[in-house]
Amino acid sequence: DPKNGHLKELEGAKERLTLHKVDLLDLNSIQSVIHGCHGVFHTASPVTDNPEEMLEPAINGTKNVIIASAEAKVRRVVFTSSIGTVYMNPNTSRDVVVDDTYWSDLEYCKDTKNWYCYGKTVAEQSAWDIAKENQVDLVVVNPVLVLGPLLQSTVNASTIHILKYLNGSAKTYVNATQSYVSVKDVALAHVLVYETNSASGRYICSDASLHRGEVVEILAKYFPECSDEKNPRVKPFIFSNQKLKDLGLEFTPVRQCLYETVRSLQEKGHLPIPQMEEDSV
To answer: Which residues form the NAD-dependent epimerase/dehydratase domain (predicted)?
Structure first.
């Protein structure tokens, strides 16, 4: 599958990587792949607010992975959830540090038609229930918006968040905030919670929360003129990443993460390389 061709280019892939096509809604296909494994990382999920495309794969697919993992008696399952399962609640204050004990409100997700957060929340809650029923050792990572170098040649949903400010398609930014984390840190977080025997529960994976205006300021030397139409700026949510820090994870600063994202977009041909940089090479 050309979609996954970049994975075969990873260091050591020829010796240690095998790819299998799996239908998350087909328990048998999952069982055939998980059989004989020591651990499972369940990262697959649609990223959409279309309920028809989001809900069944996210919810039933996760259930099938947990069930198959229980039957295979794997040592641990690491599930990639989302910060969307944590803060989507009208009662969550921006004046407190939000930690792993917070949950999104399903009715609020439905009322605001945020089907991604709804689907991921139901999926994670179901995963915890099924894991408990089947005595599966489950640990969950809840990343915020993931940025950083691209492995694949195409642009993904999270990178578009930055690209739109750099290619001129977004002339202004909204009065909103976002939390960011490097893709390298997300990968390492998964390894840490799998390999650390004492790891348990949910792990928020976030470096920092920034207003859109702050992001634009960091990207200023690449960014076209942009007007700030809304003042004062809304406060960001502050998420606790202490549990991952306690496991030894040192987060990549957002400024560096944004820089690496831009460089990767240039290298992949999604953004032009400034003439000065070309001349200096």
So the answer is: 13-199
Contact 193, 243 (CB under 8 A): no
Residues 6+ apart with CB under 8 A from 77: 39, 40, 41, 42, 65, 66, 69, 131, 136, 137, 138, 139
At the topology level of CATH, where does 144-198+205-269 sit? Rossmann fold (3.40.50)
**Is 73 a residue of the active site?**
no
Give the residues across from 239 on adjacent strands. 98
Q: How many CB atoms lie within 10 A of CB 43?
A: 12
Q: For the chain, which residues make up each domain, given as ranges?
A: 21-143, 144-198+205-269
What are the φ and ψ backbone dihedral angles of 24, each rounded to 5 degrees?
-60, -25
Q: Mean pLDDT per 10-residue run, the chain (281 residues)?
A: 86 93 94 95 91 92 96 97 97 96 97 95 97 97 97 90 85 90 98 98 97 88 56 88 98 95 92 61 35
Instruction: Write out the two tokens for 174.
Output: 């909204």
Residue whose C-alpha is closest to residue 267's, from 145, 148, 158, 170: 148
In the set 14, 120, 221, 235, the catalytic residue is: 120
